[in-house]
Amino acid sequence: MRFAVALRAIVLALLLGFTWLLANSMLGRDGNSFMRMLFSGEQEEPTPEPRPRKYKCGLSAPCPPKHLAFRLVSGAANVIGPKICLEDKILVSSAKNNVGRGLNIALVNGVNGDVLEIKTFDMWAGDVSELLKFLRPLHEGTLVFVASFDDPGTKLNDEARKLFMELGSTAAKELSSRDSWVFIGAKGIENKSPFEQVEFMGRNMLFFQCKLNFKDLLLWKSSF
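The chain above was modelled as a monomer; its predicted structure follows.
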């Protein structure tokens, strides 16, 4: 009887040992942790997935050397204000309390990236002559960032449209009330700017306006 009990104990021990070796072989390095979990009831916490990295101004990838990172967002109707971000610095936003109906414009030095001036021009009830005084004396190489809010075109006259076209705009010629417009131009540029988006809403749809998101990389040139 005692011999049979001892034999069963030996067989059971061998069976447990074989089971452990088999589990360790199948699970590799995780075998020990698996056995601990099996006998202790502990569960390993799942490894959290890494969050996607964000770069300047919310871009999904970093800019190459001598490039400026930027993000322009037009206003949505007359409810949500526009936003201009340059090199991870917010230049224009509702949170900064420096947005206004019409055209929100930031001037940037195209050589070193310094912000020169930020102004808002009311294109519904304002005086377009103020916009003309602002655009006429721009120096060669000055970058012009524009984000519209509610009404970018009612007060635009032929001279104002021509000045924007000289900065590289193709949409300024037809811009009207309730259009959404984001644009980056440069004084002295020879070709049309690739950094422009517009949503023409039409005069019969004054109650509605789309919100444009404009993300891209702007080549930082020392001259144009």
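The chain has a mean pLDDT of 77.
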